[in-house]
Amino acid sequence: MAAWGERLAGVRGVLLDISGVLYDSGEGGGVPIAGSVEAVARLKRSRLKVRFCTNESQKSRGHLVGLLRHLGYDISEGEVTAPAPAACLILRERGLRPHLLVHDGVRSEFAQVDTSNPNCVVIADAGESFSYQNMNKAFQVLMELENPVLISLGRGRYYKETSGLMLDVGAYTKALEYACGIKAEVVGKPSPEFFKSALQQMGVEAHQAVMIGDDIVGDVGGAQRCGMRALQVRTGKFSPKCGA
Amino acid sequence: MAAWGERLAGVRGVLLDISGVLYDSGEGGGVPIAGSVEAVARLKRSRLKVRFCTNESQKSRGHLVGLLRHLGYDISEGEVTAPAPAACLILRERGLRPHLLVHDGVRSEFAQVDTSNPNCVVIADAGESFSYQNMNKAFQVLMELENPVLISLGRGRYYKETSGLMLDVGAYTKALEYACGIKAEVVGKPSPEFFKSALQQMGVEAHQAVMIGDDIVGDVGGAQRCGMRALQVRTGKFSPKCGA
């Protein structure tokens, strides 16, 4: 294996996943992952550009950044690339009015979006809001559309909270895809557009960037397919059994 | 198209789906589908053998038969082939102790099954019991098993209640399959074993039987793959758009 210096030659920017890399979410706001507060501080003092690239879709960026600052991270909203704001851009561009199957914590990100008379469904990590009633409502909205459009904020299978592994939005997206016989459009990692927007926001080319995450598919695979380098941490949902 | 007499030549037994064929479930026990009480009575007076072959997994057979009798059907528990009793046989044969992700209404079917220290998950149409918490618990049980076994009572995408279309167990099975990276074993239609057990119970060969249902995949396709003839009714979840 090449030395770290060689493997990271020419890197000008670092993209950091948040959940499972910076902290494990959970009761009381979660806990930081050992050493990561210091690691982020060192990165930000270095010559490297740093950006946070998350599929967090249960909390607004404001809430997320507040939590992380409370845990000791030097981070601001403007440094975070997250799927809800990216989805809002797409909705506006395409004149889509979503039925929102989302957690109350992220609803504020959609405050400027017209949700009357829905012509699509946006699904995010709704957590406890993934009730049968809410899932069924989203299903019924899709079944009534001539051309059902389902926009999914990520495709994660699960993530790790302090209390254990938790089902992520990808599982519920699969459920709706199967029930309606459709394919969702994914906003968030591993979508190439999402990585590209993060790179643009930091002003770095793909070959000059490294993505650091705990998800072998969403973080590592997605970044590599965009021409970036990628590192998988052994925290968060990482498991030696399957690497994800 | 051949005349009915020709198409049904040699038929000795009729298998009837229940939901969407006999009745639409819903508030107050549901409503019978026009003409079907009389049709079942005529079939039972004829020389044909009749059996009810359902993927109903939210109610026990006792409860289901009680509802149908109340709606005017001449039907007894012994005439019903349903997935929960079939699953119980499999669990016993293979020494499996299930974690049950099921509706309270069907729990009595599993009364004789050892559910301590689970080594598999059984998922049925849990309806309102498909909460995030219950789904996550089933997911966590599967993720802790060395060889996760998921037994799904049917694979239906949705069914029709009097209030509209409702997500069925298949959608939630897909969610767990995706999250855990596994494939469920299906007990119920369209599994060939399930049709074969119904045929055995009525003492009729596949080529002598016709299946009548509203589901183009679970009823019609499944029966045809077993060598049976099949008819799709235009009630229940039938839609002229997609035939299912």
UniProtKB/TrEMBL annotation, chains A, B:
Catalyzed reactions: diphosphate + H2O = 2 phosphate + H(+)
One Pfam family named in its UniProt record: Hydrolase_6
Any one cellular-component term (Gene Ontology): nucleus
Coiled-coil residue windows: none
Subcellular location: Cytoplasm; Nucleus
Molecular function terms from GO: inorganic diphosphate phosphatase activity; metal ion binding; phosphatase activity
First-level EC class: hydrolase
Cofactor field: Mg(2+)
Catalytic activity, EC: 3.6.1.1
Source superkingdom: Eukaryota
Keyword field: Cytoplasm, Hydrolase, Magnesium, Metal-binding, Nucleus
Functional summary from the UniProt entry: Phosphatase that hydrolyzes imidodiphosphate, 3-phosphohistidine and 6-phospholysine. Has broad substrate specificity and can also hydrolyze inorganic diphosphate, but with lower efficiency.
Listed PANTHER family: 4-NITROPHENYLPHOSPHATASE-RELATED, PHOSPHOLYSINE PHOSPHOHISTIDINE INORGANIC PYROPHOSPHATE PHOSPHATASE
Assigned protein family: Belongs to the HAD-like hydrolase superfamily.
Protein name stated in the entry: Phospholysine phosphohistidine inorganic pyrophosphate phosphatase
Organism: Pteropus vampyrus (Large flying fox)
